[in-house]
Every structure is written in C-alpha cells, then in structure tokens.
Design goal:
It is built from 16 helices and 8 strands. The N terminus is likely disordered. The longest helix has 25 residues. It has an 8-stranded parallel barrel, surrounded by 8 helices. About 50% of the residues are buried. It is globular and about 60 Å long. It has about 375 residues and is an alpha/beta fold.
Length: about 375
C-alpha cells in the first residue's frame, strides 16, 4: 500500500509554473508542429515563424515538404521558386496555427496566435508590407503578422493595425524602436475605435531581440577594442527590455513586449512577472525547464548600477538602444543589429528558394 505521506509530488517545470503563477506568457519560437505541441504542454500559448525558423522547420521534415513542393509546382506550373517557397511557409503556418486555436479562444485573441513574418525583401515598401500583412491575416483567425521595426515598417504597422491586423514587431532591439512601434499601433487602434471598429480581440506585441542586442555590442567591443567584464555584455538586452517595460507601463500602451533571441537564461529569468511574452527557441525551453531556476517575478528588479553605468559609459551603441530618444525613426534601419538581422533574414529567404530549386531542378553532379 502506498504511503501518501511520503510520496513525492512531482514539481511542475519552471515554464509551466511561470504560466500558472504569473501574468507572463510563454510562446514557442518555432513553428515545427512537434516542438510546438511539446511547448503547449509547458504552457505555451503562441508561436512564431520567420525566414530562419521556416527554413529550419521545412528541413526538419524535408521528405514531406519535398513532396508538397512537387505537388504545388505541378498545380502551379508558372509559379516561381520564391512563390513556391512562400506557399510552403503559408502551409506550415496554417498547420501550426491550428494547434493554438484552443488558446486563442481561451485568451480572447490576446494569445493563441501564430506569428507569420512578411517577406524581408519588402522592408523598403510600406504599401507592400501592408498588403502582405492583410493577406497573411486571412490565413487563419489566429494569425499575428511580423513587420520589421524600420521607418517604413512602422508606417506599415499603423495602417495594418487600422485594417484589423494584429502586429508582432520584429527586427527590434532598442527602446526607441519599441516606443515608436507602440505609438504607431496606438494610432492604428485609435483610428479603428473612432470608426466603431472592434479592437478587443486584437493582440499586438513588440519583440525585443534581446540576445541580438547583446551580440551587436559584443561585436562593437571587438571592433573598437573595448575591454569590460564579459558578463556585463550579457545584461544589455535585459536592461533595454526592463527600461522599455517601464516606459510602456507609464504611457499605458496596449502593446505587450516580447523577449526573443535567447543567449542566456536571464532573457527569461529576469523578465518573469511582467505582463509580457517570453518566446524562447525550443532547445532553450528544454534547458530552462531543466535549469532548476525558480520562475520568480524579477521584471521590476533594476539592473545593477555598476553594470548599467559601464554599458552606458563604454558603449555609445548601448546609449542609442537604452534612451527613449537615442535614435530617430529614420536611424533605425542603419542600427548595426538591424542591418545584421535584416541581412540574415534576406539570406534565409534566398536559401528557401534554394530548397525549392533542389527539389525541382536537382544538381546533376550530386
């Protein structure tokens, strides 16, 4: 007979405890169905896709997608490699979105969404970004559309929001970008409300790619031969996120912040407790659940003064990222982290075409 008094009660994993015990929500930074299903078991109520993620998802189940590429090409004999590749991204997104419908209903549209990113090649064309955002929004009821936080992207965010599209700002690393995003979305929401259009089920978020800001400052330190305790550079993204969260609260923005591009556990553990979204890649979710770190509310704990002072003194690029007026909207596109990330997304888009090409026109020398 089992002695109930001495039987250990399994402890819920940290991410699930966060979802149950705090207002912080978990999204899965992957659209791969198997990974998303596992993340839902840990409390995930959203997921995201971008060119890099879509490419990884297609390659994770390549035989299936090779078959679909052939079928789609046969059905659309004049479709370009790009058009076929993006058709696969749409199919992948719809499949992943279906896994989130219960969460979408439960959270009344604020969560339960699958992020689909606009074509990065459109980053200079706000009208094309809006048109594609509206198109992607129609793929499923629970789509949220990613648009880059550049000057043209922010203009597109206001218009797409006005048209009823929930926005997830991407290619975003700094407080000035986050504030500009939230202001643009507020303008779009206000325009809808003025015409009596519903905004209650929309769920806009602004991603801050915290780890990519850290990466950028590490590259700057190497380039400019700036020597600091390497641990200090792990705090840059956290400091920016906490500052943006403080400003969002003061100004009453309806857009939530989202932490992405993980490089260390603080990109989760230091942000728990806020009405924010945490979106780790699947492998980071496994690590965090195995970490034993308590999911305690830390969002309001300030970054240590010596860390913040060093970052602020040694790195003008950090000052541009941390101060709300550190950059104008016209400067966003030329910020180092923005250029690096846009280039990566553009390269992944080209690789997506290569996947299609290898199916339709295999290399004869292989």
């Amino acid at each position: 007979m089992t002695d109930l008094a001495t039987t250990a009660v399994p402890t819920a994993p940290p991410l699930l405890r966060m979802a149950r015990e705090t207002p912080t929500r978990l999204w899965n930074d992957s659209a791969t169905p198997a990974e998303l299903s596992a993340a839902i078991g840990w409390g995930a109520v959203g997921a995201t896709c971008n060119p890099v993620i879509a490419l990884a998802a297609l390659r994770s189940d390549l035989p299936h997608w090779q078959t679909r590429i052939r079928e789609y090409a046969a059905e659309h004999p004049t479709a370009s490699e790009s058009e076929i590749g993006w058709a696969m991204v749409r199919e992948l997104s719809v499949e992943a979105a279906a896994l989130l419908t219960d969460a979408f209903t439960e959270h009344h549209g604020r969560n339960g969404r699958l992020s689909v990113q606009t074509d990065p090649r459109l980053y200079r064309d706000p009208d094309a970004l809006v048109a594609q955002a509206v198109e992607f929004d129609a793929l499923a009821p629970n789509i949220i559309v990613k648009i880059p936080a550049t000057e043209h992207g922010i203009a597109a965010m206001e218009e797409a929001t006005y048209r009823g599209v929930s926005i997830n700002a991407t290619v975003s690393f700094t407080v000035p970008q986050a504030v500009a995003v939230a202001e643009a979305i507020e303008r779009g929401l206000t325009r809808r409300e003025a015409e009596g259009l519903d905004v209650s089920s929309m769920g806009p978020v602004c991603t801050i790619m915290v780890g990519r800001l850290d990466d950028h400052l590490k590259a700057v330190a190497k380039r400019d031969v700036v020597t600091v305790d390497p641990g200090i550079l792990e705090w840059a993204g956290v400091a920016v996120f906490k500052r943006a969260y403080e400003i969002f609260g003061e100004r009453g923005f309806r857009t939530r912040l989202l932490s992405a591009a993980f490089r260390n556990h603080m990109h989760w553990s230091q942000l728990v407790g806020g009405d924010v979204v945490i979106s780790p890649p699947f492998e980071w979710q496994v690590r965090l659940n195995d970490s034993g770190i308590e999911p305690l509310p830390r969002i309001d704990e300030p970054v240590a003064d010596d860390v913040l002072d060093t970052l602020y003194e040694k790195f003008p690029e950090f000052r541009r990222a941390y101060d709300s007026d550190g950059m104008s909207i016209g400067e966003f596109e030329q910020y180092g982290a923005t250029r690096r990330t846009l280039r990566q997304f553009l390269a992944a888009t080209a690789e997506l075409e290569s996947v299609v090409r290898d199916v339709l026109l295999p290399d004869p020398d292989r």
